[in-house]
Design brief:
Number of helices: 8
Distance between the termini: 40 Å
Number of strands: 7
Oligomer: single chain
Strand order of the largest sheet: 3-2-1-4-5-7-6
Low-confidence stretches: 201-208
Mean pLDDT: 91
Length: 238
């Protein structure tokens, strides 16, 4: 695979100076954006599938794209149910090369994450694991509130609990995510450089020890091939 993905370019050289104030504002105000009917329908369908599977510990792959990461997570955690959510019908419908034998503990659904997260919270559903893999960095300083940690929905993300992992090829995005989590959560936050590696042996996929081969999303693979440094933020939310 050849790739020449550009590094993230931004006028920011550190955590946004307004981040703390933005997070505090969102934490003390109620987010009242109406939930659209199609998102509610998508939520109901996916939660029904999860319950039909036995309401296993739930993993959310937020912004799953074509869904390869959802498949990898379902294989890595066979005793969990994984829901991959993405707002793009084009990405979800692409002709991805799936393995011949698919696990039965995952599904993908088209929905807006802002609504989907709030519907999970309102239904009293808590996550065991939660992945934000390579979200749009929105690198312009003026776009701070479009980044998930600067969005009004971020307190809801934190309230869903579980093991939260965010990955990016932009270090500042991960440092900002960690800063916002420290502001809202009473848990240990880890920020580190990251190289994909083959998970535990219960993963039923034929992959080599190469970080590029062990990448679980197309973006992750593209960034590695392009020589980018990867970063991640980890925490366990009570």
């Amino acid at each position: 695979m050849r790739a020449n993905s550009s590094l993230v370019k931004s006028n920011q050289s550190s955590v946004h100076e307004q981040l703390a104030a933005i997070v505090a504002k969102h934490a003390r105000t109620q987010f009242l954006k109406p939930i659209t009917p199609y998102n509610r329908t998508a939520f109901d369908i996916s939660i029904a599938a999860w319950r039909d599977a036995g309401a296993l510990p739930l993993i959310l792959d937020a912004g799953c794209g074509v869904g390869l990461s959802t498949l990898h997570l379902a294989s890595q955690f066979p005793d969990h149910f994984v829901i991959g959510v993405d707002q793009s019908a084009d990405r979800l419908g692409r002709n991805t090369l799936w393995p011949s034998a698919l696990p039965n503990n995952f599904m993908r659904v088209r929905a807006d994450l802002v609504d989907y997260w709030r519907l999970l919270h309102d239904a009293g559903i808590r996550l065991t694991r939660h992945y934000l893999l390579y979200p749009n960095p929105w690198p312009k300083p003026s776009h701070m509130t479009r980044r998930w940690h600067g969005h009004a929905v971020f307190p809801t993300i934190v309230a869903l609990g579980g093991h939260l992992e965010c990955r990016s090829n932009w270090q500042i995005y991960i440092e900002e995510c960690a800063s916002a989590l420290r502001q809202l959560a009473h848990s240990e936050i880890t920020v580190e450089q990251y190289l994909p590696r083959k998970p535990a042996s219960n993963v039923r996929m034929d992959r080599s020890a190469s970080p590029i081969q062990d990448a679980i999303t197309p973006f992750e693979k593209k960034y590695l091939v392009s020589g980018h440094m990867l970063w991640r933020c980890l925490t366990h939310l009570e």
